[in-house]
Write a structure and sequence with these properties.
The chain has a six-stranded parallel β-sheet, with helices on both faces. The chain contains ten helices and six strands. Helix 10 links the parallel strand 4 and strand 5. The protein has 216 residues and is α/β, with parallel strands linked by helices. The structure holds magnesium ion (MG).
């Protein structure tokens, strides 16, 4: 695994990666999505659920799935984050803070679907991280494309500079979803890590609050 020594930049997904999936209760988030589909389509909840899941299997993100079902997925999630009491769910995570202290020699950035930049900043602060510690925070809102599309990842490479556009394998993207994060990163040639578990399709597994599961 010699490529790991060539990594110079680390891109982070936010939701479900810098905090565990379920920290913001999944049932709240999922039920809101179902309700939106029911309201727009007039379907019963069971049909709405099966269609939402079918779309997710095809498209690899709930943001895209909602949009395909006639709901602006980015607007849905940004409104949801505004409405939920995020401060009662997201708390300072000392191990996460310590993790970043152990990774000072990388250029760090956040690339997130379905958050405005100010919402990314708010969530980072709640987790105990300084938004200014990241070189840039990239929100797909208004980008016209969301992960796993290539465009957000290409935008990140552009921000990192021509040397990274030429050698995207020097970037490690860390996320919690195979379909959204790993597939998207690989689409542009970045390396990908999947958190919270092993995944053959990712290049490495990664425990954000513990340690790299590899040595180098
Ligand atoms: Mg995520």
């Amino acid at each position: 695994m010699t490529w790991i020594t060539d990594i110079q930049a680390i891109g982070w997904d936010l939701d479900g990666t810098l905090y565990r999936p379920g920290t913001i209760p999944l049932n709240i988030v999922y039920e809101r999505q179902l309700k939106a589909v029911v309201d727009v389509k007039g379907w019963d909840p069971g049909h709405a659920r099966s269609e939402l899941e079918r779309m997710y299997e095809q498209l690899g993100s709930y943001t895209k799935s909602l949009t395909a079902l006639g709901i602006d997925g980015e607007a849905f999630f940004t409104q949801l984050w505004d409405e939920l009491p995020l401060g009662s769910f997201l708390k300072t995570d000392k191990e996460l803070v310590a993790l970043f202290h152990r990774l000072p020699n990388y250029r760090h950035f956040v690339l997130s679907n379905s958050n405005r930049v100010d919402q990314i900043e708010q969530k980072l602060r709640l987790l105990g991280l300084d938004p200014g510690g990241f070189e840039f925070l990239l929100a797909t809102v208004n980008m016209g494309a969301v992960k796993p599309d290539a465009r957000p990842f290409l935008a990140a490479l552009e921000r990192l500079g021509p040397e990274f556009e030429a050698q995207p394998e020097r970037v490690l993207y860390v996320g919690d979803r195979l379909e959204t994060d790993v597939v998207g990163a690989h689409r542009v040639g970045m390396k990908a890590a999947l958190v919270w578990g092993e995944c053959e399709a990712a290049d490495i597994g990664f425990e954000p609050c513990m340690s790299w599961r590899i040595s180098y």
